[in-house]
Structure formats: C-alpha cells, structure tokens
Amino acid sequence: MQINKKQHKIMILPIVAYGHPVLRKVADDITPDYPQLKELIANMWETMYGSNGVGIAAPQINKSIRLFVVDSKQIIDGLEDDEKSEYPGDEGIKEVFINAHIVETGGKEWAYNEGCLSIPKVREDVYRDETVTLSYVNEHFEPQQKTFTGVTARVILHEYDHIDGKLFIDHLKPLKRRMLKSKLDDITKGKIRVDYKMTFPK
C-alpha cells in the first residue's frame, strides 16, 4: 500500500486591498492546532518578499487571526553607517508574531514615511511611539515578552494595527485623509496597477 503524501507548495498569496471588510475586523487569537499554520507562515513570508514588503499581517491575506511576520533587518542592513546611528539599539529582526498584545508603548513620538501593501502607492508621514513591549508566542508557541525600538518598533506597530482592524492612514489628520479620498476610492475599485497579486472588494 502506498501512502500519498500531500506536497505543500509555497505560494504567493493575493493581498487584500483597502476597502475590504477583513481589514477592519479585530482579529482572533489562535491555538497551536490552527489548520496548516506552518504552511500559512511560509506563504506569508513568500508573499511579503514577493511584494517587497518588510512586514505582513494575516488580515492582509484575508485571514482574521492575530498573526504577522516582520523582517526589519532588510531596512537596517540597507542603511549607511551614519544612518544606523539614528536607530541606536535596533539591529532589526526577522520574526513571527502570534497572538500579540501590546503591554506598553513608550519613548518619544517620531515621524516616518509609511506605506502599506493593502494601500498601494500611498505614502504618508505617521507619528508613532519610539518603543513597544509585546507579549506574544512565536511559531513554536513559546511565550515571549520583548521590547522593540526604532524602525523595528515602527514596523511592528504598523502590523499590529492590522490585527486590531486599523490602518496607517487612521493616524493621519482628517484634512490629510480627505485629500487622499479619491486615491483610496480608486484602490477600492481596483483602478490601480501593482506588480503583486491583489484581491479587491466586491
């Protein structure tokens, strides 16, 4: 008798576009027996790198669960030495975050020009706290509590917003949001070209 082992192929998944209701849901915690979690995480890394991202959250691939992945080492490693001094104590990370919950944020608020794979071709300066302490489990469901700083904290806070049903544009002043309305409407209607797969609201 021959056992047919199912082969899992790593896939690039379509990214959900602005206007899709999943992006506004508060995502749920998961348990270690979540179906095909290992494959899902592998696909999220593949999707993130395939779209030149530094982080991606599960709601962006249409799964309302508290899971995101971050590779801020790409940013830190790409900086010149004098630029690295702007982010003391931040060497970048490549990490999986499951069931993340913020313990506290701190430090001085600072601005950084952010973009989002779900809101393509829109970039704006967003103010966020300098540090974030998170409790979460890693991909082996080992409990973690760590404090992150600098651009790594920034990427984590951006992805954390996704699992709380928020987007980076929510941090903008109302006038700036109004100025972006036509661009956002075009994204929702699929009137935009990107070099990665997207799912648009029906």
UniProtKB/TrEMBL annotation:
The gene is def. The lineage of its organism: Bacteria, Pseudomonadati, Bacteroidota, Chitinophagia, Chitinophagales. Keywords: Hydrolase, Iron, Metal-binding, Protein biosynthesis. It catalyses: N-terminal N-formyl-L-methionyl-[peptide] + H2O = N-terminal L-methionyl-[peptide] + formate. It is an enzyme of class 3 (hydrolase). Gene3D superfamilies: Peptide deformylase (3.90.45.10). The keyword rRNA-binding does not apply. CDD domains: Pep_deformylase. This is Peptide deformylase. The active site is at 159. Its EC number is 3.5.1.88. Its cofactor is Fe(2+). Fe cation binds at residues 116, 158, 162. Belongs to the polypeptide deformylase family.
